[in-house]
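Schema walk-through. Below, the input block comes first and the output block second. Nothing else is stored per chain. Lengths vary across the set, and this one has 96 residues.
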Amino acid sequence: MPVWADAFANEKQKAVWLTFLILASPLGVIFGYIMTSIYVGQYKGSDPNLNENWRWSFYTQCALLTPMSLGFLFTPVKYLDIDRSNQTRDKCQKKV
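--- output ---
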């Protein structure tokens, strides 16, 4: 992903794009642990099956990712920066 940000961001935005891309993964892991602890800790006194509540974090993740996945599925290719020819790759190799 950093290569994508480096290729498509303008010079003023490259640092911001790279920062968001690099921080997204660790923040997602931390958010997942927090959500799981909330689900497990929420039923601590009333639910004897504490080992079953962690699954709700995966259900939540599926529910949140489904609209985004559908959005990417129905996005026209002209709005995505995808060049399926070798011209872009050749141009990038000439710069190096």
